[in-house]
Structure formats: structure tokens, C-alpha cells
Design a protein that fits this description.
heterodimer, A: about 400 residues, mainly alpha, Cytochrome Bc1 Complex, Chain D, domain 2, 15 helices, globular, B: about 375 residues, 2 strands, about 35% helix
């Protein structure tokens, strides 16, 4: 098949080395030939040159991650929806949203988000820094505005102090707050899963069942076509046939958000009137061949992050495997509303029950211990001026 | 003394034509008088009424326009500083909605001079006020069948945020003074004496003139700062956010409300605020842009002293030497500018709102 890749020169260069092609790339793995990058133990996360880690940034970032004052009405911060007890995500089909709203996509875990070069399901952010910005400002997420959030930070002495240490400015800038949050998130990684241990040479780290599942993953299941490399994601966009959010048909609040997203992200009037599913990566380049495509998610930490897929339509990993086994069709027969863009990589797999349970067991090996964290006690506001200072200013008028 | 008119020449010319002779102090200003009638489109106003009381018009669906402009509190909040949006406070006093459609300039600092359409947008979208992404608001409105019908009946067709910004101003036109003794002529003797003082010895009419009893211009009367703006971080954050957004420099360090300076960025205008209307004062305590004066007695006493302390205070303000009795008469006159409280169903939306957004049935097969 021909798979046209637009606007992804870096990725193209990477893949080109492994897959070879000119103009278009054959992604179908061929037995015995060079295929997709193999699974690999996870190394340290990349640190961007313009936001190097420092203890002060990480400390500030941790506070800010858990502080709901970084949101419109001071009720909704990062951790409000990326709840550590829910796999650092949100355990419903679609994420909770800002009060008075609901989101339209499934919430993704923060764990190992540091490794992605494309954040959000449709890759709308290219860094953790810009992801944090979009999430804190988005109308159905944090719904915060720069000025009020920056004002709040400036009235919290502990943040002023930490910010000065981390960034050197007299008063916190929101842009730096996002850099601090990203720095904290770069510490939320998991590199000691059973699979990492196995790939590093501890052959006892995987069970017999999991080792069989690995063979299915890399062979008959062909999962590795997209879930490859250390992150178990090629970060490419595919339409694999996942059905849209069922709740859109049943919940007025969800219908509001659906239309808002279609409207706000930029659609023709006809598209706004008629569309009934999430166009995903279409919104990147507004190319119709990207309709319904989403960025391959990592499989790491997956046992804690149910439900699954961009629309959260599958409650268990068994459901996910059944979906793939059926060639990208859910048990209830639902599938993508964009059949034209569905990837030819997705076809019925003919896995036996034994192979399916082996595969699920292997996918579980991408998760280590659950990462728990006690929420920090949030520092209070303090008045910027004393009464005496105000009185002096009054008299000087 | 002569009234210094430094701007508004067209207004001056207009008044000259009327040729009012009000005595030495009040020369060349428009007289008080009845408000001109405003034509109101009923269906549009009815829609605007439902919108005005609907909490779903704020970001987190927790507050409506009517939260800070409460009919039972004179369409204001009877506290010095308005509540603002949940999560923050505010730094100014909430003004009444009654007669708001007669104004030409809005906000205490006068930063909007176009129309109520823009004011509606400003109030709904401003982060420390209603913090609403109007694209979400539009879709919320479209999810409510009652609105679908009302928009249609009003001739607006499909709901949109632009039409919300038309319907609310249409409704606000219906909130005008009703049966104020000053308008009906049923003033007490004390109030009549007060009117004479208002135009004469008190010099009030220098700024409080015309049917609204305001020149709608900015003056510095030396009202003291409300320290709660700065001592309460919830209020202060709203102030900082406002100043930051408006491009007022040194926003972390300023210890006073810059007022009309926000409009002109001229340091001569620091501490000036737009003259408020005196209509409906009976219900709108406390007074001044920051609610620093609790009662009308306090307000009159304040002016009797020649206003507050400010090096840039208007030269129009001088100690007045009003006796206690004169001050009482002046208050009586001010109260005669207040009419009926607009709290009946004619003015206030009485209907309930759905607890949940109704689902659109057969969603996949109907147009959005």
C-alpha cells in the first residue's frame, strides 16, 4: 500500500532509514526483512534544550500541576482531570471537563507523556509545554485566561520565590509556569516495567504466557507495525476503525461540546452541520485523507488507564484485542464514521482465544507498579501590600 | 463661578440651543428632565430577559448577569465590591441595570463607548466576570429547545453568540425608571428644596445633568481607595488581571484604581471616573465606583466637604457649606429620582431552567 506522509520530515527521515522508499513508504512489515523498530527498553526522557531540568522547576511544577488555581474558576487544574488515582488520567469514556462542560475525548495518562513528540490524540501540541498551555486554557478543560492565572501566581509568595529561583524573573510568567509543569511531568516516567526488565536481559521478567503474547504482538497480531520502539508508539496518525463516543447520542452536555469542538477547530458550515464523529488529525492540515486519524498511543502504563482509545469506547484490554481481532470493529458492530481513511493495516487477525489472552498478558507487561503521589499542600495567597503601604499611597495622592 | 467645560462641545452647543438659565453655578449644562421613551421589541426583550437570568451564560455555569445585577438589590449588589467570577473577586462596585440603555458610556472607567452589544460581550467573556467562551455559550443555547423557539419567535433564526449580544441589550431597554417622584411631579417639599440646592448652592448639576443626571464624563472627586481591592488577594488578582489585559503598566505595584486613565493613558486622568446617574439610588447602596460611601447622607457629606483628597481632584469641587437641613433636603431630592423597584415578572424572568441539557434525539441523523 501507499501511505502518504505529510508534514512530518523528522519522522520521515527516521522511518526512511528503516523502511526505505522514495516518495511513499511501504509500511507493511515483510517477514525476514527490516521491519518496524523493535520494542526496546525505555531510556531517559528527552529534555528540550530550551527548558533544561532544575530542582526548582520540578518543585514548582509539582505544585502547579496540583493547583486548581491554574484554571478559570480556580477549581480545575492539571490534576483535576489527570488524577493520579485514576492512572494520571480520567477513568470515564471521555474526560471530565471544566465545570459546566464535559470533554470530547478520552483523557491520556501523564506517565511517560514526556516521550511523545506529539501531544493530544490528534497531535495538536508538539511539546509538554504547549500541551499544558492548551489544556489550561481550553474551554472544556481549564478554561483559564493568561492574565488571571498569571495574577494568581504573583499573589502566592511561595510561587514567586520558587519561580525566581527557577526562572529568575521578579514575577511569575505563565509561560514559565508551563515550563515548570513540563519539567515536573518529565519526572513522571516508568522505565522498570516487566518488559523493560526482560528486554534488558532478565528473561524471568515475563511469564510464559507473556512471552507467547510477545510473539503474537510481533507476528500474527502485527501490533508492532505501529506500537513499536521504546515507547510502543510510532507517533504516526491512523484511522483504525474506533467508533465515536456513544455518549454523543445520549447526553446533551456531550452534544454541546462536540459541536463546540467542530466549530472552534475550524470547519466549513457544511461540515459543522453534518459531521457526527471526531475528525482527529484532519484538524492539523485540514486534509480529508486525515479524517478520523489519531496518533498511536503508547501501551505503557495501560493497565491503569482504562477505558481505551481516543473515544474511550473500550473498557478493558480484552475489548481492545477483540476489536483488533475483528479488523477494527467493536463488539456491538460500531466502527469509524470515516471508512475511506481506515488503515489497510487493520484487518481481521484470526487470533485464537489462547492467543488473545496471551496478547493481553503481554500488553500488561508494559505496566509496572502503579505510580502514586501524595498531593502537595498548596501554598496560600498573601496580600501584596500592607495596610500601612496603602495608607501611605492614599495620602500621597 | 464658571463651569469649565473642557470637552463635549457638541453637547455644549446643544444645550445653548435649549437656553436654560439655571443660575450662576449651573449655567450651560442640560437640565434634568424626564427620560425619553425607548421602543422595545417585545419578543427580543423577552429572549434577552431569559438570557440575563441564565447561569449557563457563564463559563462554569455558576453565575448569571443577574448574579451581580440582582433586581432585589437595585440591579446591583448591595456591597462595596461586586462578586466577580467564582475563583476571584472584583475591584469595583456593580452598577445598576436600570436606565443602562440610556447611557452613552459604560463601565466606571468609561472604557466602552460603543453600545450595550459590546458591553454584553465584555461582561460575558471577561475572565474575572463571566469567563465564557462564547462559542461554548452558543452551543449551550442551541441545546435548549426553549431558546430555539424564542430565537425564532424573535426573528433571529438560529441562536448564535452575536444574537445573544443583540437580545440582552434589547431586554435592557425595558429596564427604565418607573414613576420616580421627580418624573411624576409628586415631590415632597423637602425634595423640592433639595432640587434648588442641587442646581444652585450644591453645584451638583455641574456634572449630574440631563435626563440621566450625568454628563457621562470622567471626573476625579477624590473618592478614597477601597483597600479591600488590594488587601484581599481574590479582588487584587482580578484587578491585576484587568490592568495587565488593558495594558496598564506597573500593574504589580500600583496601589490605586487608575480609572479613566485606562481610556486615555494620560496621567492627568488617573483617578477620574465616569459620573454615575443618580436615578434609582434608593436601591443601589453603597455608592461610588468602589462602594466606599455607605449612604446617601455620606455622599452628600462627602461633597459638602469638597470631595476627597487627591492632588488631581476636579476644581469643580469645593466645600459647599450646606447646613444639616440643606443636606437632608438634598438627600430627599436624590431619593425623588428613584421610582418603583423593578422586581415584578414584567422585568424579572420567573421561569425555571432545565437542570440538564435535553438530548437531541436521533442525533446521528439530524443536522447540527
Amino acid at each position: 500500500m501507499k501511505h502518504v506522509i505529510k508534514f512530518r520530515p523528522v519522522l520521515l527521515a527516521t522511518i526512511a532509514g528503516a523502511l526505505i522508499a522514495t516518495g511513499c513508504i511501504a509500511q507493511e512489515p515483510k517477514k525476514g526483512m527490516s521491519g518496524p523498530p523493535p520494542l526496546a527498553p525505555l531510556g531517559p526522557p528527552p529534555i528540550p534544550a530550551d527548558n533544561l531540568l532544575s530542582p526548582a522547576k520540578i518543585e514548582l511544577g509539582k505544585y502547579l500541576f496540583f493547583d486548581p488555581r491554574l484554571g478559570g474558576d480556580a477549581s480545575t487544574g492539571c490534576s483535576t482531570c489527570h488524577e493520579p488515582d485514576q492512572g494520571w488520567s480520567w477513568a470515564e469514556d471521555i474526560s471530565r471537563g471544566y465545570p459546566g462542560t464535559v470533554h470530547w475525548r478520552s483523557n491520556q495518562t501523564i506517565i511517560n507523556a514526556a516521550y511523545y513528540s506529539k501531544l493530544f490524540w490528534a497531535g495538536s501540541s508538539k511539546s509538554l509545554e504547549s500541551q499544558a498551555k492548551s489544556a489550561s486554557k481550553g474551554g472544556v478543560a481549564g478554561n483559564g485566561e493568561t492574565d488571571i492565572m498569571e495574577a494568581r501566581l504573583s499573589l502566592i509568595p511561595k510561587y514567586v520565590e520558587l519561580n525566581k529561583k527557577a526562572f529568575g524573573t521578579e514575577w511569575p510568567l505563565l509561560q514559565d509556569a508551563y515550563r515548570a509543569i513540563a519539567s515536573f511531568e518529565r519526572t513522571l516516567v516508568q522505565r522498570d516495567t516487566p518488559l523493560d526488565k526482560y528486554l534488558l536481559g532478565d528473561k524471568s521478567a515475563l511469564s510464559e504466557e507473556q512471552i507467547r503474547g510477545k510473539k503474537v504482538f510481533e507476528g500474527k497480531g502485527a501490533c508492532i507495525q505501529c506500537h513499536n520502539g521504546a515507547l510502543a508508539s510510532d507517533e504516526n496518525y491512523y484511522n483504525i476503525g474506533v467508533p465515536g463516543v456513544k455518549r454523543w447520542e445520549e447526553d446533551g452536555l456531550a452534544q454541546i461540546t462536540f459541536r463546540f469542538e467542530i466549530y472552534a477547530k475550524g470547519s466549513t458550515e457544511e461540515m459543522y452541520r453534518t459531521i457526527k464523529d471526531d475528525p482527529g488529525a484532519y484538524f492539523r492540515g485540514k486534509n480529508k485523507w486525515d479524517m478520523g486519524k489519531f496518533r498511536t498511543p503508547s501501551l505503557r502504563y495501560a493497565i491503569y488507564t482504562a477505558p481505551y482509545m481516543h473515544s474511550g469506547q473500550f473498557d478493558t484490554l480484552d475489548d481492545v484485542v477483540d476489536f483488533y481481532n475483528a479488523g477494527g470493529v467493536a463488539a456491538d458492530g460500531r466502527t469509524t464514521s470515516f471508512p475511506k481513511t481506515k488503515s489497510p493495516l487493520i484487518k481481521p487477525l484470526g487470533l485464537t482465544d489462547g492467543e488473545k489472552s496471551d496478547l493481553v498478558a503481554f500488553i500488561e507487561a508494559f505496566s509496572g507498579d502503579e505510580i502514586m503521589m501524595e498531593k502537595p499542600e498548596l501554598p496560600p495567597y498573601a496580600a501584596r501590600f500592607s495596610k500601612a503601604e496603602l495608607q501611605a499611597a492614599q495620602e500621597a495622592k | 463661578m464658571g463651569v469649565r467645560v473642557t470637552s463635549g462641545r457638541s453637547l455644549l452647543a446643544a444645550m445653548m440651543g435649549v437656553g436654560m438659565a439655571l443660575g450662576a453655578q449651573a449655567a450651560n449644562v442640560p437640565d434634568l428632565g424626564p427620560l425619553p421613551p425607548i421602543k422595545v421589541n417585545k419578543a427580543k426583550a423577552e429572549l434577552g430577559k431569559r438570557l440575563f437570568f441564565d447561569k449557563r451564560l457563564s463559563g462554569d455555569a455558576a453565575i448569571a448577569c443577574a448574579t451581580c445585577h440582582d433586581p432585589k438589590q437595585g440591579w446591583t449588589q448591595n456591597k462595596p465590591l461586586s462578586d466577580g467570577y467564582p475563583g476571584n473577586g472584583h475591584f469595583r462596585n456593580s452598577p445598576t441595570m436600570v436606565n443602562v440603555a440610556h447611557k452613552k458610556v459604560w463601565n466606571h472607567d468609561g472604557r466602552i463607548g460603543t453600545g450595550l452589544n459590546d458591553m454584553t460581550r465584555e461582561m460575558i467573556t471577561e475572565d474575572y466576570i463571566m469567563n465564557m467562551d462564547m462559542r461554548i455559550m452558543q452551543e449551550r443555547v442551541k441545546q435548549d429547545p426553549v431558546y430555539l423557539k424564542m430565537f425564532k419567535d424573535a426573528g433571529y433564526g438560529e441562536p448564535s453568540n452575536g444574537k445573544v449580544r443583540k437580545a440582552i441589550p434589547e431586554y435592557l431597554k425595558s429596564l427604565t425608571s418607573q414613576n420616580a417622584p421627580f418624573d411624576t411631579g409628586k415631590m415632597s417639599k423637602s425634595a423640592k428644596r433639595g432640587l434648588t440646592l442641587f442646581k444652585g448652592k450644591g453645584g451638583c448639576i455641574q456634572c449630574h445633568n440631563g435626563p440621566l443626571a450625568t454628563d457621562e464624563k470622567a471626573h476625579n472627586t477624590g473618592v478614597p481607595e477601597n483597600f479591600d481591592v488590594f488587601l484581599d488577594p481574590n479582588n487584587h488578582q482580578a484587578f491585576i488581571a484587568f490592568a495587565m489585559f488593558q495594558g496598564i503598566e506597573n500593574f504589580m505595584n500600583i496601589k490605586r484604581d487608575p480609572g479613566y486613565y485606562n481610556v486615555t493613558m494620560d496621567s492627568a486622568d488617573v483617578g477620574k471616573f465616569i459620573t454615575p446617574s443618580l436615578r434609582e439610588l434608593k436601591y443601589t447602596a453603597p455608592y461610588m465606583h468602589n462602594g466606599m460611601l455607605k449612604t446617601l447622607n455620606d455622599v452628600v457629606a462627602f461633597y459638602n466637604m469638597g470631595g476627597g483628597m487627591d492632588s488631581k481632584k476636579s476644581s469643580l469641587l469645593k466645600p459647599l457649606g450646606l447646613s444639616k437641613a440643606e443636606q437632608k433636603d438634598l438627600v430627599a431630592f436624590l431619593l425623588s429620582l428613584s421610582g418603583d423597584q423593578l422586581t415584578s415578572a414584567k422585568y424579572v424572568w420567573q421561569g425555571a431552567y432545565p437542570a440538564e441539557y435535553p438530548v437531541i434525539e436521533n442525533w446521528k441523523n439530524v443536522r447540527n
